[in-house]
From TrEMBL:
Residues 101-157 form the CBS domain. This is CBS domain-containing protein. Pfam families: CBS (PF00571). Keywords: CBS domain. It comes from the Bacteria.
């Protein structure tokens, strides 16, 4: 009994430390308060929030309501310790952001003919493509909405407005898209932080493009949108 209680306490304290780290080591490091803040940003906490709150009550009963010596008012079940360890493991070694990205990334050059890109929209059912110049510098995100705006404003002249148009010609019709870049080896926590920060700043993040170095002059290895973040929640629910 003493061993399982000790195992529970050690694992719980490790999770508490991870929560402090995720929240920048705030002055108020109350476990439940940290849970409340963390669940807004991170799926692993959000999915296991209610269970972790219950484990906190159990931990308080073990630590503060011990009757004497090794005689505890409550002791954790083996399944509880096992589950707590699985949560701690994810917090300690979160999966890479690339795990949840759409890949491989289909992208085009600024010189690519618009008709070719429109065919790709239809064939792959994708609503946006990264566009790069010949030096592999990111030029912008070309979306189906941008193409519609371009066509709407150029059809007045008659003919096929897309026949001799390049991707670079259409980018000027795109509304400013908030796109950020992140290293492909970054954790899913880093990824979620990017989206959370953009939400707090009222700057909707259209996509996070993952590259080898996290710089925009590297070719994309994966792309993540808000829809892809749903995969994170689903994965954690499957684990639980």
């Amino acid at each position: 009994m003493h061993d399982i209680v000790e195992e529970f306490e050690i694992t719980f304290n490790q999770i508490h430390q991870h929560l402090k780290e995720l929240n920048g080591y705030p002055k108020n490091d109350n476990f439940v308060e940290l849970l409340q803040h963390s669940k807004l940003k991170h799926s692993v906490v959000r999915v296991h929030f209610d269970q972790l709150k219950q484990y906190a009550k159990l931990r308080n009963a073990i630590v503060h309501e011990r009757i004497s010596g090794d005689y505890y008012i409550a002791t954790p079940h083996e399944d509880v310790v096992h589950h707590l360890k699985s949560i701690q493991k994810i917090l300690e070694q979160p999966p890479e952001a690339l795990t949840f990205a759409t890949r491989p990334v289909l992208f085009f050059k600024t010189s690519t003919n618009l008709l070719h890109i429109m065919e790709a929209f239809s064939k792959h059912g994708i609503s946006q493509f990264p566009i790069y110049d010949d030096s592999h510098h990111f030029a912008g995100l070309l979306t189906n909405d941008g193409i519609v705006r371009f066509l709407a404003q150029t059809t007045e002249n008659g003919g096929n407005p897309a026949l001799h148009v390049q991707a670079s010609d259409v980018l000027g019709y795109e509304k400013h898209a908030n796109v950020q870049f992140l290293s492909a080896t970054a954790s899913v926590f880093d990824l979620e932080e990017r989206f959370e920060k953009s939400l707090n700043e009222d700057k909707k993040l259209k996509a996070v493009i993952l590259t080898k170095t996290g710089q925009s002059d590297d070719l994309p290895m994966g792309i993540v949108t808000t829809w892809d973040l749903i995969k994170v929640d689903r994965r954690e629910q499957d684990i639980s």
